[in-house]
Amino acid sequence: MSLFINTLRGKASNETPVWLMRQAGRYLPEYRKLREKSSMLEMVQTPEMAAEVTLQPLRRFPLDAAIIFADILTPLIGMGIDLEFKKGEGPVIDNPVRTASDVRALAVPAPEENVGYTLDAIKLVVKELNGKTPLIGFSGAPFTLSSYLIEGHSPGDLLHTKGMMVGDPPLWHELQEKLVTLCVEYLVAQVEAGCESLQIFDSWLGYVGPREYDKFVAPYLMKLITQVKARVDVPVVFFATGVSALFPRLGKLPADAFGVDWRISLPEAHAAIGRSVPLQGNLDPQILAAPWEYIEGAARAVLDEGREIPAHVFNLGHGVLQHTPVDNVQRLIELVKGYRR
Ligand code: 1CP
Fold first, then answer.
1. Residue 160 is part of a domain; what is its CATH number?
2. Which residues span the domain enclosing 302?
3. 282: cis peptide before it, omega within 30°?
4. Which of 19, 72, 90, 184 registers the highest number of CB atoms within 10 A of its CB?
């Protein structure tokens, strides 16, 4: 069993495994080169290209895990929405989901027909990695996926989303049920294609207060993770940002580990979660674009805090930013690989 999987299983050794969210992407010149000729969607939907992009950071850095190149939004295309990644704007959905008939019209296709390209990319990557490095599969969480579906773009505010959530709970329920099914099947299919670990991204959950979390979010997260864990035996990591105050509630989810952003220290997050669980994180990605002298101290502080919790996977507190110097990423990973707990 690899260092990464063992650590997520709570079997910490004196080494801290490391991978970075968005480790593939625009900060890498070899990614930008491919991206000159193809759109983000073309890259995700062509298995050879998605596999190549997944492997790019692993050729440069001694990472302990790969993450399949896809997006949390690509599985939504098969539900019947028009998704585009627009330059400078990010994802745009031309037909947002606002009414009962919009929700009812959403299909829940099987992963093989919906995202066969990602499953094929996973098989190519797993073959290439040849048992040396585990591959992470992922999905968005129902709340965050809803926020894109309902707002139709990057959810700056969540007025339409919360409008449906609290204004029409039966319709919200219907949408959440469809998304839970879509996500469970997608996550299970990724494991069947060869992924050894799963991560669930709930990037916008930090905008939800405890009352609405309990009523409109928690039941579906519980169902999603419970169903996935009943069907596949791989560690499931739950990641959200801005949720320091929700950790006591999130700790009740049956996730095997939690991703932590930079707004809280690892020991504080662990105490708030309230049970013995591995944590992943949590260097501020904006700090990784700062002078190395500062990064080094900050990264060592994260590693030292990682010794105070039962098991620690080093990561950033969110994805690598586009203007991050590649050299900083290189030195960071070397620093983590040389560290002993
Ligand atoms: O070249 C480009 O223009 C593409 C930029 C890009 C990339 C590299 C997007 C558009 N998606 C991705 C890949 C991606 N997205 C991965 C691949 C694996 C890796 O980490 O290397 C993953 C796991 C995601 C997940 C994702 N997509 C999330 C969850 C994590 C997070 O960042 O919070 C979210 C919210 C998205 C939506 C999305 N896709 C792309 C952008 C720019 C965004 C965010 C837009 C926004 O702020 O709303």
1. 3.20.20.210
2. 3-338
3. yes
4. 19
